[in-house]
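Hi R.,

Here's the chain you asked about this morning:
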Amino acid sequence: MGFPTTLRQWLREARAGRLFADLRSRDGFLADYLDLAQVDGLIERHRSGFEDATDRIWRLLNLQIWGQMFLGAAGEPSRLEASVRTGNALET
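And here is the predicted structure, written out as tokens:
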């Protein structure tokens, strides 16, 4: 149900690199819970077209944002949070 989006393609484009950098960050929310080498592999398989990991990457991005916004440390927002708040999540 719903309407189609081009999220799969967006996540393969170079401008998604900012989002992936935050997912891979050792300071990010997910770093304490996931093996970042596995996250790197998932991202690379998706970007190369070997595997469609759109849904899993989308869930990870949402969990990262949620964790940083609601469970993260006080102070400056992360680049990811700031880009989401300004609506520039995929801009370079």
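One quick note: The mean pLDDT is 84.

Cheers,
M.
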